[in-house]
Amino acid sequence: MNSQAADLSLDVAAVGPTGRPLREFDAPAPLDSHGPARVVAMVNQKGGVGKTTSTINLGAALADYGRKVLLVDFDPQGALSVGLGVNPHDLDTTIYNLLMNSRLDPNEVIENSNVPGLDVLPANIDLSAAEVQLVGEVAREQVLDRVLRKVEDNYDVVLIDCQPSLGLLTVNALTASHGVIIPLECEFFALRGVALLVETIEKVQDRLNPRLNIDGILATMYDSRTLHSKEVVARVVEAFGDRVFDTVINRTVKFPDASVAAESILSYAPSHTGAEAYRSLARELIARGGAP
Ligand SMILES: Nc1ncnc2c1ncn2[C@@H]1O[C@H](COP(=O)(O)OP(=O)(O)OP(=O)(O)O)[C@@H](O)[C@H]1O
Ligand SMILES: [Mg+2]
């Protein structure tokens, strides 16, 4: 191999799935004090794109780096709660009660998860009634914000797992947040609906929450063996440029397996590439200023 060919192969090896040079993000410095939290909503009205999986595993990775993390289950399906070993159907109070009763203390509802440093505000099917019940409230878009403000000093990061809809609950999540992460599944229709999502985010920025920032687009369920996955990521990068995280999450059965075990992938398969991907996402989010 002549030296030019050797250089070329080096270059090829250094390009990541986004087509950009692969960057390494350093492990973040430990924090000496905690809070107030930066709040980040995980949003996509398309179902099954990896919102809940990303909330659990990014949360677990941030906790692993010594951050105090609260995960808010904001989906009546309760998949986030179940995925962390909290059975929301046995609980007397959930996020629903906090939305409906401003005198209820969130600390009485928050549950410790099976991950140290990671707490959960659980949800169950009760939350499905909130969408309708909140419509008549004063400042109906700010109800979750008022709940989270009571606990923001106890955490470094709050991640909100939204349901697949752009209804009032998701608008509440956007209104309560500093940032949004949009997970996109690497498949043909990944970008369908994203324009409407961005429009909703802009409306919330304009009318309710000017600090709201799109922290990043996260490509999930990437299959490096298919040209198709690469093409989808290329199109997403074309549309969103630098806002696409360098970190891309591979498709692997380890994620559903970890959910069945009600664990994060970081504890279920700590040395698997899927666990390293979410650790990398945590480092990248911190490096980009999306988390302390
Ligand atoms: N990277 C991945 N590789 C393989 N399977 C995955 C991956 N990420 C998530 N999954 C699986 O895909 C399914 C949908 O994921 P998840 O529940 O995280 O999506 P969601 O966006 O929260 O869905 P919903 O909109 O219904 O709330 C789950 O069974 C999950 O285990
Ligand atoms: Mg979900």
From TrEMBL:
This is Chromosome partitioning protein. It comes from Spelaeicoccus albus. It holds the Pfam family AAA_31. Belongs to the ParA family. Residues 38-214 form the AAA domain. May play a role in septum formation. It comes from the Bacteria.
